[in-house]
Amino acid sequence: MVLLKKNRVEFILLLVGCCLLFFQHSIAQISNETQMMILMALVCIVGVPHGALDFLVEEQTQMETKQVFYIKKFVAKYLFRLATFACIWVFPVIAFSLFMLISIFHFGETDMALLLKTKKHGAWLYATYGSFIFGLLLLVHLPQIKANLPATMNDMYQTAVFVFVEQFRYYILGLITIIFSATLVYFYINNNLIINGIQIIKFVLLIGILIMLPSLLAFTFYFALWHSILSIRNIFSYVTVHNNSTKLKAVVKKFILFSVAALVGMFGLYYALTMFMPDVNLLLALLLTLSVLTLPHLEVMHKMYVRLQKN
């Protein structure tokens, strides 16, 4: 019962995923338009706002390291990193590759950091786990993803790399799975990973949900629900454990302000993109926006997980 209570959030999310699977496969297939509406709604309600708590995380980290937190300095540095990564999109291949690497590490760290007993080789575990999750989201659903992206990306589909990935996607996913499985065995043998029956059940259910849901719903479930809500839980655990004296009213005020700013920026970027790419669709615009937001968010969250592991 203690283990179930400790993992309550994860099991609630997995129950939601199973309900989506049941509806999709037994009642009625959810149209692409409806999937996009669900994705956008949850990104706006949970996905983007979970990054708006970065100020709270950074404030806690600064306090622990005996530094003074200045909100204006934090915002200035945050915006500078956003602008820097946005400029990198002038070179799309480099920007997309960097975004993928950052996201792989970030997803791996969010899901696995608190299961590690020590930080030794932690980066490798995060990388292999994140690669496995991305493999499920991208390689399994590659045909659907290809159909949902705009015609402006047709040139990319003809490149040798994309053709190779499309042709051998299951072999690539198999290799990623083997590497990740070997990594888990290594960490388990060296007694550096908390693995029990509950963890295994959660992981199997998560894999099944990501494979069996349609591409947009799978991404929605993992990013907007699983990743975002677990991040929010970890953030408040971080603040609560270290007895942050920040007043709730001030936190809520800043959270709302940053959430609104992030959402305005997201939709502003979308309309700016339509001026330069007339046939850009909402999915591609969302991908570009999230990529810009990910870099500064990863830095703040990484420092948080390092502190959590130390304590």
From TrEMBL:
It comes from the Bacteria. The chain crosses the membrane at residues 38-57, 78-104, 124-142, 170-189, 201-225, 255-276, 282-301. This is Brp/Blh family beta-carotene 15,15'-dioxygenase. Coiled coil: none annotated. It holds the Pfam family BCD. The keyword DNA repair does not apply. InterPro entries: Blh_diox. Keywords: Membrane, Transmembrane, Transmembrane helix.
